[in-house]
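Internal tracking record. Fields below are filled automatically when a chain is submitted to the structure queue. Please do not edit lines marked as system-generated. If the sequence contains nonstandard residues, flag them in the REMARKS field before resubmitting.
Queue: standard
Priority: normal
Entity type: single polypeptide chain
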Amino acid sequence: MTEGASPAAPPLPAASSPGGVTASPGRVAAGPARGGAAPGRKSRRGRAGWAPWIYLAPALVVIGGLLVYPVYQLGLISFLEYTQAQVSGGEPTTFQGFGNYATLFGDEQFWQVLLATVVFAAACVVATLAVGCALAVLLTRVRALPRLALMLAALGAWATPAITGSTVWLFLFDPDFGPVNRMLGLGDHSWTYGRYSAFTLVLLEVVWCSFPFVMVTVYAGIRAVPGEVLEAAALDGASQWRIWRSVLAPMLRPILVVVTIQSVIWDFKVFTQIYVMTNGGGIAGQNLVLNVYAYQKAFASSQYSLGSAIGVVMLLILLAVTLVYLRLLRRQGEEL
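SYSTEM-GENERATED OUTPUT FOLLOWS
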């Protein structure tokens, strides 16, 4: 031993647990297993996990009664032979499987109506978004009084029932008494006689009653954008179109997703405007869309199973379009 060095401390004996497992002296006694939680904490987490569902239960019950059950009945009837004879009890209801769908897909008129519905709905969605977004930007550029007048006029169009708006538009374009023909010098021109002119007239009415939702929603989103961002873009010399395309549209994309999906759903299942303004689908059914076509099959022809099959096809198409649209946005890294 060298001089000045303290004697080495004797080693401590290893502690032994009651089960005979030896623990090192520098190791702190272990509590519960790593990753485990105390029983009280588990119960609290369990209660916290169920709490949101308890609060949502009343709404889920209402949605189940108003949405899930009717969709179930719609799908069930589409697999049955269900006509007026079965409704009145004269004949028994029989299971048809996919027979109604085979009959539907084998009907050439169904494919013509489906194509017309897709084209018409796409035109309505594009026109509604264009008008609504343009007026939303305009609202941010005008003074308070014109802004209030435009908002009240738009909300009045939005609050007008579809059947009332359709009747008013029919009067405006009436070949005998309508002011539009007089202003344009068209005489007794009938807008509902031709297929494309009738679709155009209905499109104008659909856009008129639909753009306020887009305008108000997008306007609220623009108001939430920091003013410094828009001022910086203007100082850099960007035009209004460039500001919208490069600054506002990317920042408002979540809002635009909502209004686009809503517009697709509303315009794809248009019924009242077509039925009222073209008198049930136009001459020889030239202005039929899927909703009116389903109504004719179910109630005019008493083929309730075929009408239900058309409803199921419409539901699947809308679900597919919505899911594909959301998937494309997620691939672009958008938070929804």
